[in-house]
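Today's session is about reading a structure prediction critically. Students often jump straight to the picture, but the first step is always the sequence itself: look for stretches that repeat, for charged clusters, for runs of hydrophobic residues. Only then move on to the predicted structure, which in these notes is written as discrete structure tokens rather than atom positions. Here is the chain we will use throughout the hour.
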Amino acid sequence: MNSPTLLFTALPIAALTVSLIATRWLASHPGTRLGRLDHPNARSLHSAPVPRTGGLGVLGGILIALLVAGAMGAVPIELGWIIAALALVAGISFVDDLGHLSPLVRMVAHVLAAIVLILGGLSSEIIDLPGMIIGLPFVVGAGLTLLFIVWMINLYNFMDGLDGLAGGMAIIGFSALAILGWLGGAPIYASAALCVAAAAAGFLAVNFPPARIFLGDSGASGLGLLAAAFSLWGAQSGLFPLWTAGLIFSPFIVDATWTLLTRLARRERFWEAHRSHHYQRLVLVGWSHRKTLLYGSLVMVAVAACAVASVRLAVREQWMLLGAWTIIYALIHFKVALIERAPG
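Below is the predicted structure for this chain, in token form.
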């Protein structure tokens, strides 16, 4: 077995093992000082307090695997910047999990993390669409990159409200990135992405409905940061265009963005807790967590498979694919509305 294959195999197994052991221990010891219980509120879909320390297990699994990779001399410079940004986001989010920080403090930390990634070269100075590349001035590109990173951090947190959903998106999304990395001849990128997916799988084993533990802000915000960072890293490395990564994570991007725009149009206080996401609305009308997660996972797998295939399609076929998924998401939106209106 050659070195890239050994790395590709061993590191994700380490991430999975550490995450699973740590998450199981945290779920069995909810009274530790590592975090508080998540008590039901206006946004919640659960009815009893649940530990919200699962993010520590996920991030621990990822970091242990990357430290092992570092000891083997297999950590590229991009991962150093990503780890620094992740430490900033996860650290401030963990403090928020322990108590309560103002949205302004959290937002400042998210912006600083985005700046760290941009300083590390993970910035997009082009608008890259099928058959179309538009160059941007550095300031404009950096500004759009900053918005992309900050929005990914927050939208992942917004979507972490259903047992298994955030973990499932991480497994499917980062596995798709790993496949693209492997097909593109970048085994270190592929192995790093697979480590994130494996760590999420260790968490999902305890978060699957009915969940015994939640990610918490540290885990959800951390995964959002990693989704943005790995998308930019892969695009910068020429493994895929940025829109392909956006398609992979589109189940979260579309739902969170649509919900935010809808609440803004209604002049609601969008920063306050709510239950307006499509998955929340389905649970409120009687769908179980497992049924909602099943249908959501089917969408995630289908769109991820299309995204992986998209890099080998002709330009016309890529546009057709994007158009098809636009229609699919519109149909999902209207179907949820119909389910809500249906008599009980």
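Discussion point for the tutorial: Strands lie at 37-38, 50-51, 126-129, 132-135.
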